[in-house]
Amino acid sequence: MLINAINPFKKLFTDRSIPSDVIFFSVILILIPVVLITGPALPDIFLSLIALYFLIKSVWQKQWHYYKNKLVFGFLIFSSYIILRSFFSDMPIESLTNEGSMFYFRYIFFAMGVWYLLDHNPHLKRCLLIICILSLVLVCLDGLYQYFVEINLFGNEKHTNDRLTGFFNTEPILGRYIAYLSLFTFALMYQIFKKTKLMMTLSVSFLVMCEVIVFLTGERAPLFYVSLFTVLIVIFIPHYRLYRIVGVIASIIIIFSILQINPTAKSRIVDHTIQQVSETKIPGMPYSAHHEEHYITSLNMFKEHPIFGVGTNMFRFKCDNPQYKYKRGCISHPHNFYFQAIAELGIIGLLFLITFFLYLLFIGLKQFIFVLTNNKTKQIPFEFLLYPMILFIYWWPIIPHMSFYNNWNNVMMMLPLGFFMRYFYGNTNNGNY
Question: Global pTM?
């Protein structure tokens, strides 16, 4: 087992057909799941290095085919609009500098950098998969330890009595890290090992572990992500359907068993959730009344500035204004990409986000029709379909999000985007779906 884990790295460093610069930046990419545990600084540095490397390399080698697709074109227009909107806001310096929104375009160059490295390094996926699995196993075990012992392996205490943080210290993002990375890791696992029984069994066990810990973290949005992922797997991957259903049953049994020993998570995930969703103006929505106050504050900004919004990253500065603020609706960002976009960038900014989400939905609906009619000739292979599925979940609109400009969150989202672009915009040998 250890030899199998080491072999891809051995091949990576001994394969003389791979240029040294590709190996170096591949290592940086491979380490991203690890540095994400350390906080936002290192992941952003690693992302920016890969983005800059790709920009220089693609221009130097005149690799223009990476740029010739509608997604890159739209992303660059959107990034330009963000900067332009900052210049014309009431506080241009604050608007440009908060959360690095001025350099938002770096994310698309990072995604293209991932695409470029995949094209030039055949060992990258296996190495990345191993690091992802090791990172998730370590983080999950540490989270489980903190759940029962009240502190993690490094002595970090829980964020609150019903929220786990693990290695993230005071940041309650353990569940989001596990949910985001587990979906991406499953896609890698499925793509590399296809439909072998060993892969089926191991991947079920892996998802069960992640689902259980996500539940115990007390974070509801990540729990929604893994639940939606399960639904999509059952719909789109028929030969994996039974395995996934068995895995869900196993997760439920394990969770109930743990709650019998220590019922801490139940108070937030079950009891508190039922109370909160019943308090919203539209009962049953997957957000709290407090989140709803942020959303209404965003809509108030939109009503006053419907076309261009109040300015990039200006929600935090404008939300306390009596003409916008609704109850406790003032905070650094409204905790939803779409409400943040409509408040800060107006209908123009929102259209970019909605268009991308509808594009992913269109891919899914086409595949659903082909699966339903058993039209295998037009179906996208499931190992490639997983990447738009993951992005669809990340961009799901009716759920609380982190800030749209948060670099830690964007690293998580742009990593699968690079894989998506490679298989949907690459040459015919790579897919070109």
Answer: 0.92
